[in-house]
Design a protein that fits this description.
It contains 18 helices and 19 strands. The protein is of the alpha/beta class. Helix 11 links the parallel strand 11 and strand 12.
């Protein structure tokens, strides 16, 4: 390797050893892995919040929060509850009875809703009959909770970056709801060096991004005494959230949700506004990442890409009409999907989307139609671990149940291709993950827990077991 790139590949002993030598001892090498959808600060801070994934009812979640520690800012914060199949409904009174006067916040696993007690509602200046805020109100609460002291959040991101490198990650796409053009140079100057980053921004910051001259794929023009900002950070996309989520029952669908005949989900950005945003972004040299989960939202997003000539990605694409599959390739829209969501959500889909006629969580169908797939986690919605995503895509299960919609499984090679940006060949960046065995020769559990012996970023070791 030289100047961060692969110079040559040869049998052991054929070339003289220079510099640091890693004896991989028969391990396998794959290109460095990318997670193409991460909410970085929320993911990093999740380690400090109370996990609620095991709560099987609203009452159980409230009991967990009763004993939760109070953070230095005076709040209790829990994260990761999934209420879509709970037998009871969240209420302010239930949460107040368990948590008293300490402001208490419970964040849905999908981040599209939050459950607050009366003290938290008063502190934030919101009202909610059941204590549950949804969509933009929920995002605002998450932004406030994530806006901790920058030195604290930067240290959390640095530690989370080390954890990602330990799973072979050499790059991620950051969809944090903040002005990330300032945050990432600051983090690198504070010591972050674990992986490459493409950062997004949201419509409220689109004028600011254009005024700053940001262009997708370009380096940031900042003072950079380390050289790492230019090496690691690139401008990403405008992120537009065009509908809700399955877990909050707000994803925009063709058929209503069971027991709620008037609820077809919500298009949070009207089609004409979405087209205007894409037109503005395209004219400024910016790609667009459109969050679209339900099939109505997917169709509307593809319509906007087609009408404006904008380029970029569809984030999630969890319910896709058959007629829309081929439009991804025809319009050049990448399908940025999270395979772990398919196995996490299978029970929700069987209940809440049982009457939908579009394809749920398509992978093989998108590939067969010529679409480009990119895999991610949506961390902290799912763990930031590309091997979990790869296993979920290849096997479509993570428990002892049979594959869920096995017709949508992809091959290991296809899953790897959706998880990397480079190749192991001369001239390519030396972003490499050295793993403990042949990923083609193992089953689902072993693939999910694939050992990572070492991770190299531009030839520099960022993880060694």
């Amino acid at each position: 390797m030289a100047e961060g790139r692969i110079v040559d590949i040869a049998p052991t002993g054929a070339l003289p050893a220079r510099g640091e030598v890693i004896d991989a001892d028969g391990a396998w090498a794959v290109p460095g892995l990318w997670d193409n959808h991460v909410h970085t600060v929320q993911w990093a801070l999740a380690a400090e919040r109370v996990p609620l994934g095991e709560a099987d009812s609203a009452a159980a979640a409230a009991r967990v929060m009763r004993d939760a520690p109070v953070l230095p800012d005076g709040r209790r914060v829990g994260t990761g509850f999934r209420d879509a199949l709970w037998p009871d409904r969240p209420t302010v009174a239930m949460l107040d009875a368990a948590t008293g006067v300490v402001p208490t916040y419970l964040i849905n696993a999908d981040v599209h809703s939050v459950w607050l007690n009366s003290a938290a509602l008063a502190r934030e200046g919101f009202r909610g009959d059941d204590g549950v805020l949804r969509e933009e109100d929920a995002f605002e609460i998450s932004r406030r909770l994530n806006a901790v002291d920058p030195a604290h959040s930067d240290e959390a991101v640095i530690q989370a970056g080390h954890a990602a490198a330990a799973r072979g990650v050499t790059g991620l796409v950051d969809f944090d709801m903040a002005w990330n053009a300032d945050a990432w140079p600051r983090r690198i100057l504070a010591g972050f060096d674990a992986h490459r980053v493409e950062f997004a921004f949201y419509p409220t910051d689109l004028p600011r991004a254009i005024a700053a001259g940001l262009r997708t794929g370009e380096r940031l023009a900042v003072a950079d005494p380390t050289g790492l900002v230019g090496a690691l950070v690139r401008v990403g996309s405008l992120k537009v959230i065009s509908d809700g989520s399955l877990g909050t029952r707000t994803a925009a669908c063709s058929h209503s949700y069971p027991g709620d005949p008037q609820n077809y989900g919500v298009l949070t950005v009207p089609p004409e506004e979405l087209a205007a945003l894409l037109t503005t972004a395209a004219g400024a040299g910016l790609e667009v990442a459109v969050h679209a989960i339900g099939d109505r939202a997917v169709t509307a997003a593809l319509d906007a890409f087609g009408a404006t000539g904008a380029t970029g990605s569809m984030e999630h694409a969890q319910l896709v009409r058959h007629a829309d599959l081929a439009r991804f390739a025809r319009l050049g829209v990448r399908a940025s999907v999270q395979p772990q969501h398919a196995v996490d959500d299978r029970d929700l889909v069987e209940h809440h989307w049982a009457e939908q006629t579009a394809i749920g969580y398509p992978l093989a169908s998108l590939l067969a139609a010529g679409a480009e797939l990119r895999f991610g986690s949506d961390a902290p919605v799912a763990p930031l671990d590309p091997w979990q995503a790869i296993s979920a895509a290849v096997w479509r299960t993570d428990d002892d149940r049979a594959a869920w919609h096995a017709e949508e499984r992809v091959t290991l090679d296809q899953a790897l291709a959706a998880s990397v940006r480079t190749a192991i060949r001369p001239g390519e960046p030396a972003d490499i993950a050295i793993i403990g065995g042949d990923p083609r020769a193992v089953g689902a559990p072993a693939l999910r827990t694939m050992p990572v012996v070492a991770t190299l970023l531009a030839g520099r070791v960022t993880h060694a077991a």
